[in-house]
Design brief:
Largest sheet: 6 strands, antiparallel
Strand content: 35-45%
Order of helices and strands: HEEEEEEEEEEEEEEEEEEEEEEEEEE
Low-confidence stretches: 1-30
Number of domains: 2
CATH class of the largest domain: Mainly Beta
CATH topology of the largest domain: Jelly Rolls
Number of helices: 1
Number of strands: 26
CATH architecture of the largest domain: Sandwich
CATH superfamily of the largest domain: Galactose-binding lectin
Distance between the termini: 93 Å
Length: about 375
């Protein structure tokens, strides 16, 4: 009798074990639907810390418990950006990182697999403030993020608006840079005050993959200093970069609008190269290490207006594309040398037959001390693909 009871008990135990195993295999644990970056100050749901201050970090002030009109809850985050170029960069931004101040030197990323979008609410103090971009991932180093996604530019309203970054198809298995924003002095010459709230990753199964679409024309590199239509950043200073002075908001005699670009080259041989030049890049300082190219296949030409301070200034080359690296530009095109006049003249780089499917180096100029031994000053305006 005892053996029968023992066998019956073992049989019941095995049956239950099989039953539970079947239930587990049929109903795996459901992943979290929401993973918050910021909800309210000191919320237990917050992940990441706004510790990664970049560019002109001296131009920034933060209030992570602003109580004036939050989107939800009792607080939101306020940033004040003075645009004074304290570190000489002309831009500033902040990364939310894990752990704080982690630029890839520490292991701290979260596995966000299954999340399909990041949403956040933002507003400006007055309206018209411009974020050059927001971004997820992109931290390099010993422990690099597995993805890098950007969106922008964004012109803020004076009321709360929700924005969405599509994450479908991205490798989110390790993300230590949970969220970032960047603003430039060109687009916010008088500075800006803006607010963020309810920043979160979401697992929304209705979101579809977003492919990189060809850009519509005209596609501006520079229209006016504050134009939200500007693309690429004049960040790639080359050669004797110490010989260059740049003003992207020069107001005297622009070709069109209220500003143009002024470039002064001293030819003092600061770095011993005897030449200097500058690339407009996306994102800033991208020499092919970041996936930042635009699909410009609809363009047949790049046009720009230029003039010299006195006339006779010689620029050896104007070009686009040509950046090499892990994410290389798909082609290159140029004109030059070009001798400028004192009056505005339009110049054209023919793009027919060029592969413009991926361009992160949007525009470039270069000259040297041999053809400009005393240096030169020249101006650019209305730089665009057409």
């Amino acid at each position: 009798m005892f053996k029968k009871l023992l066998l019956l008990g073992v049989g019941c135990f095995l049956a239950c074990a099989v039953s539970y195993a079947q239930e587990d295999s049929q109903a795996p644990q459901e992943p979290n639907k929401v993973f918050s970056v910021y909800t309210d100050r000191q919320s237990a749901d917050n992940h990441y810390v706004p510790s990664g201050w970049m560019g002109d970090y001296g131009d920034l002030k933060i209030n992570d418990q602003a109580v004036d009109f939050p989107h939800s809850g009792s607080t939101c985050i306020q940033f004040i950006y003075s645009a004074k170029k304290s570190q000489g960069s002309g831009w500033a931004g902040v990364y939310w990182q894990n752990p704080p101040n982690n630029w890839g030197t520490k292991k701290g990323g979260f596995d966000l697999t299954g999340m399909t979008k990041l949403t956040f609410w933002a507003r400006g103090a007055k309206g018209g403030e411009i974020l050059q971009k927001v971004k997820i991932g992109g931290i390099k180093g010993t422990y690099p993020d597995t993805t890098e996604i950007e969106m922008g530019p964004i012109e803020l309203a004076d009321t709360w608006q929700q924005y969405t970054v599509n994450l479908v198809g991205k490798d989110l298995s390790y993300v230590s840079g949970g969220f970032a924003w960047v603003a430039t002095a060109d687009q916010n010459p008088d500075g800006a005050i803006f607010y963020f709230d309810d920043i979160k990753f979401e697992a929304d199964t209705t979101v579809k993959p977003q492919s990189k679409q060809p850009q519509s024309m005209p596609f501006y590199i520079y229209a006016d200093r504050r134009s939200i239509g500007n693309h690429f950043i004049p960040s790639g200073w080359m050669g004797d970069y110490g010989d260059i002075k740049l003003d992207t908001g020069w107001k005297e005699n622009p070709y069109l609008g209220d500003s143009c670009v002024k470039i002064a080259y001293t030819a003092k041989n600061s770095q011993g190269a005897r030449w200097a030049g500058m690339y407009w890049q996306n994102p800033a300082n991208n020499w092919g290490s970041t996936d930042g190219g635009f699909d410009l296949t609809a363009a047949t030409k790049l046009t720009f207006w230029a003039r010299g301070e006195n006339g006779g200034e010689r620029i050896e080359e104007f070009k686009l594309g040509g950046i090499m690296g892990e994410y290389s530009d798909s082609d290159i095109a140029s004109i030059g040398p070009v001798v400028l006049t004192k009056d505005w003249q339009q110049y054209t780089i023919d793009l027919k037959g060029k592969d413009l499917s991926y361009i992160s180096g949007g525009f470039c100029w270069a000259t040297n001390a041999d053809v400009a031994p005393e240096g030169c000053t020249f101006y650019l305006d209305e730089i665009k693909y057409e």
